[in-house]
Design a protein that fits this description.
Pfam families: RRM_1
CATH superfamily of one domain: RRM (RNA recognition motif) domain
Keywords: RNA-binding
GO molecular function: RNA binding
Radius of gyration: 31 Å
CATH topology of one domain: Alpha-Beta Plaits
Strand order of the largest sheet: 8-9-10-11-12-13-14-15-16-17-18-19-20-21-22
InterPro entries: Leu-rich_rpt_Cys-con_subtyp, LRR_dom_sf, Nucleotide-bd_a/b_plait_sf, RBD_domain_sf, RRM_dom
Shape: elongated
Largest sheet: 15 strands, parallel
Number of strands: 22
């Protein structure tokens, strides 16, 4: 089991499902401690009539009202509805029965949500300028907190946890107005984990009161709230700009609800969410969407991606192993403004992209490759606008020769960024071709034993090079790095972590040589990261090093602290990381009651 799937399992183990109602003294209460009189039923066969349902529930007590909810165009699908009892004991009696059959057909029954219960003090039904009944108002004036002015109350609200803020706002009209005054500055950024300790009613009221102020939301939705959060997001977060969801299974229905009104959305990340092709259609109307990250969704084939908004500039499909080359080509051709494409662990399709002229504007490509010389690789260098290339390779696999030579042939004066993520995937002949990429500004070649002082000479021709990463390259020395710095006049950022032969002498030599070459224009200071090298920490206190005028050295000492981590940090994943397991079970037509029309579908239900 990899670390990500372990983290998901651990997360779920720490957040068990919570019972949403309980029995007490022959009565039933919701998780918000609201007395239950109204019940929600679902999975009703079309063979069951309203009269039969009323007759059935009348066995438990006096039925005040019963309503079946039917969505348009779904006559063949099971239905849902609600029943209201005058006496809460009758509702409790119905809930005591675990299994319900009407006309030989089974149906499911649970309490209606807290805000649909008659005893719930849902103040949102009152206009903001309307006061509660006089009896309640006069009683409220005797409470000490009511004597505080609004400035004091706002200060109190800022100190409360989110759930407590919602309870505060629900208390009375004045408190709600106070909460809404401070909400725009408090609720711009939200992590889904915040909802873990909140009830569905709390979550609903948060989105109703503050949803329009939320600009960024991210994390793992609590499993028990997932479908409600999707619905509330799409209904109330009309100004949301970015969304990042991790490891939540999102059905097509959830996707449709979630993106319903997110017309300001610019960036969406749905990683490891077991997405289906049909679910992608929910994003077609988002006309401001620039970035779509669908990493680790291996059920996707590329179908319906051509229906994405034409304004999309970044598409991340890392570890979407089900992608088909021909469908991806169709999608890329439709996305005429696409500038960045991540295809790590996606079947190779570069020939289609080039021949069909599907990526005319593509500037950034991330992909994986092995040592086998697939013909596909020669087309990478022929992508007309390519400026940045990130290559992933498996351990011990060298990069394909034809890919590197193709870059040298077609992109010598265009490619500005080259990164190789792998172990020992570069050899000396490849460095000769990389040295021909004269436009390179950034070069990442970490963890390569083949890189030596002598092979670095191939890079002396890179006169535009500004940054290089040679981490874990154990065969380079102080002399090799010094000569590289002197040869590449614009080079001023070097990552040398764990290059074990790098010593204090390098720092002294750089200072000495650059002092002697003061008339040569170059960017100073030279920034060096040398953690894990043989550089002595005490050297950083030398006056000329500490001044940071010629060199700026970063050396982090090993931490003596214990191994600890934050659960959320495990999901802060690079878009091209390997090994993300998700729940790949397929959507069912109806998984639970949240797939049906809810009580909210009836605008009159609250007023019964």
């Amino acid at each position: 089991m990899d670390c990500i799937s372990f983290a998901v399992d651990l997360w779920n183990a720490q957040t068990p499902a919570k019972q949403t109602f309980y029995f007490k003294d022959e009565l039933v209460y919701t998780e918000d401690h609201v007395l239950v009189k109204n019940l929600f039923f679902f999975n009703i066969s079309n063979l069951v009539t309203s009269r039969q349902l009323r007759k059935y529930f009348a066995k438990f007590g006096n039925v005040a009202r019963l309503q079946i909810l039917e969505a348009k165009g779904t006559a063949s699908k099971p239905r849902s509805g609600y029943v209201c009892f005058h006496n809460p004991r009758h509702a409790a009696k119905a809930l005591q029965r675990k299994v319900h059959y009407v006309n030989g057909c089974r149906l499911s029954v649970r309490p209606s949500d807290s805000w649909h219960q008659p005893d719930a003090q849902d103040l949102t039904r009152y206009p903001a300028n309307m006061q509660p009944p006089k009896g309640n108002h006069s009683k409220a004036e005797t409470i000490p907190i009511m004597r505080l002015n609004d400035d004091c109350l706002e200060h109190i609200v800022r100190m409360l946890a989110l759930a407590d803020r919602i309870h505060f706002a629900r208390s009375c009209i004045r408190f709600r107005n106070v909460y809404q005054n401070v909400s725009p500055t408090l609720e711009k950024f939200v992590n889904f984990h915040t909802f873990e300790s909140m009830t569905v009613w709390d979550v609903r009221d948060f989105f109703k009161l503050s949803g329009r102020h939320v600009q960024h939301i991210e994390g793992i939705m609590p499993e028990r709230h997932c479908k409600h959060v999707c619905e509330f997001l799409g209904k109330y977060c009309i100004n949301l700009q970015s969304m990042r969801v991790m490891a939540n299974k999102l059905t097509s229905t959830s996707m449709s609800k979630m993106f319903a009104k997110l017309k300001s959305l610019e960036s969406v990340e749905l990683r490891g969410c077991a997405l289906s092709n049909d679910g992608l259609l929910a994003m077609g109307h988002l006309k401001k969407l620039k970035k779509i990250d669908l990493a680790h969704n291996d059920r996707l084939t590329g179908e319906n991606m051509d229906r994405f908004p034409r304004c999309v500039e970044t598409l991340i499909l890392t570890n979407c192993s089900g992608i088909l080359a021909e469908k991806l080509a169709v999608a890329c051709k439709a996305l005429t403004q696409l500038k960045e494409l991540h295809l790590k662990s996606v079947p190779r399709c570069f020939r289609e992209l080039v021949v069909e002229k599907c990526c005319e504007s593509l500037e950034v490509l991330a992909t994986n490759c092995g040592s086998r010389e697939y013909a596909e690789y020669q087309y990478v260098g022929q992508l007309p606008s390519l400026k940045k290339l990130i290559l992933h390779s498996y351990p011990t696999d060298t990069l394909p020769t034809r890919l590197i030579t193709g870059l040298a042939e077609h992109k010598s004066m265009q490619l500005e960024y080259f990164e190789s993520r792998g172990s020992n995937c570069i050899n000396a002949p490849m460095l000769l071709d990389i040295g021909k990429l004269g436009a390179l500004r950034t070069l990442y070649l970490p963890n390569n034993n083949e890189i030596t002082d002598q092979s670095l000479e191939s890079l002396y021709s890179l006169q535009n090079l500004e940054e290089i990463n040679l981490k874990y390259s154990i065969n380079i020395t102080d002399n090799g790095i010094l000569r590289l710095i002197l040869a590449c006049a614009k080079l001023h950022v070097l990552h040398l972590n764990d290059c074990v032969q790098i010593t204090d002498q390098l720092l002294k030599d750089i200072i000495l040589k650059l002092k002697l070459a003061q008339n040569t224009p170059r960017t100073l200071p030279i920034k060096l990261t040398v953690t894990g090298t043989s550089v002595n920490y005490q050297t950083l206190h030398h006056p000329e090093v500490a001044a940071k005028k010629i060199i700026d050295v970063t050396l982090t000492l090993p931490s003596a602290g214990t191994c600890s981590f934050n659960m959320h940090d495990l999901f802060n994943i690079d878009p091209d990381d390997y090994n993300f397991d998700s729940d790949n079970s397929f959507d069912t037509e109806f998984e639970d009651e949240d797939d049906f029309l809810s009580d909210d579908s009836d605008p009159h239900f609250d007023f019964f």
